[in-house]
Amino acid sequence: MKHRWLGMASGLVLGFVFSTFVIAQNAPTVQKEKPQGPYARIGFFRALDGHWLEMETGYVRHLDWHRRAKDPWAWYGYAVSSSTERKAWILYATFGRSAAELGSPVAPAEDWSDALTTLFPHAKLLEDGIYEFLPALSRGDGVPTPTLCADYTTVELNRGTSKVFEAALAGEKSKLQGETLWYRLVVGGNTPRYVRLRPRSSLALILDERADQALPDKVIGLISTIKNEALNLRPDFLVNVTPVVAH
Predict the structure, then answer these.
(1) Fewer CB atoms < 10 Å away: N or C end of the chain?
(2) Helix 108-118 to helix 2-26 angle, to the nearest 10 degrees?
(3) pTM of this structure
(4) Are strands 123-133 and 149-157 parallel, antiparallel or unpaired?
(5) Are 77 and 233 in contact (CB under 8 A)?
(6) Domain boundaries, the chain
(7) Which of 197, 192, 130 is nearest to 156 (CA)?
(8) Backbone dihedral region of 168: left (phi > 0), alpha (psi from -120 to 50 degrees) or beta?
(9) CATH assignment of 2-25+36-237?
């Protein structure tokens, strides 16, 4: 029961934050601003002690709720396979969402009710944020190719350095090799935070490209912390997504 109340509290808080975010995005302004987005919702959860199998089973059952509810969003699910602190955590995400879509998910009350029954007795939600896709820094359209592996980098900056950081990465965009997607956190955690997702067909390819993963030297002094992790796409953790398998 304790975990259910914790999950419900998380759901209520997130619902409030997302609603506030959407209101702010849609509020009238004196000057017409450039369209913002698209956005990604990215989060992590981990199993409670001794509940790994139950967590996996519960998550699969919860995703089946999304299918029965005819959720039109595409949901990605990755297992963190290489990390200092998040190994065996689950990363879930949806990409390419507008602000209006984030404010009107399918049956949110029923969604959380099902999650409280199937998932959260066995798992703890640790992060859940909204990120804006940054096309000026990226190679790709913001919706990752669902390859079996991905390189995931989290960068937290020193205060007041975001514009310099983004300008430096934009200047290096022409050097990007392969699909490289950058997102900036806008709601749901400490800022300034950025994440980079590089979908790849195998861990071997990620390792072969490790020289390309390095950030430009000119941004190193702007960074407070940086974390690099390997992800494995889980076919049983997908909704409206078909994995791409290299031949």
Answers:
(1) C
(2) 150
(3) 0.86
(4) unpaired
(5) yes
(6) 2-25+36-237
(7) 192
(8) alpha
(9) 3.30.70.100
SS3 122: coil
- 239 three-class SS: strand
Which one, of 202, 25, 176, lies nearest residue 102 by Cα?
25
Helices (H) and strands (E) in the chain, counts: 7, 8
Backbone dihedral angles phi then psi of residue 159, each to the nearest 5 degrees: -60, 140
Place of tokens 């999650």: 115
Residue 51 near residue 122, CB atoms below 8 Å: yes
Backbone dihedral angles phi then psi of residue 154, each to the nearest 5 degrees: -110, 125
Give, in order, the Cα–Cα distances in Å from 128 to each of 40, 131, 189: 10, 10, 8
Question: Torsions phi, psi of 48, nearest 5?
Answer: -70, 160
Strand partners, 187: 130
Q: What is the pLDDT along the chain (247 residues), one digit of tens a residue?
A: 444 434 433 443 344 344 434 434 444 443 444 557 799 999 999 999 999 999 999 999 999 999 999 999 999 999 999 877 898 899 999 999 999 999 999 999 999 999 999 999 999 999 999 999 999 999 999 999 999 999 999 999 999 999 999 999 999 999 998 999 999 999 998 899 999 999 999 999 999 988 778 899 999 999 999 999 999 999 999 999 999 987 5
3-class DSSP assignment, residue 72 = coil
Q: CA–CA distance from 120 to each of 67, 68, 114, 206 (Å)?
A: 19, 20, 9, 33
Q: Is 231 helix (H, G, I), strand (E, B) or coil?
A: strand
Query: In angstroms, how far apart are the furthest CA atoms of the chain?
Result: 55
Residues 6+ apart with CB under 8 A from 174: none
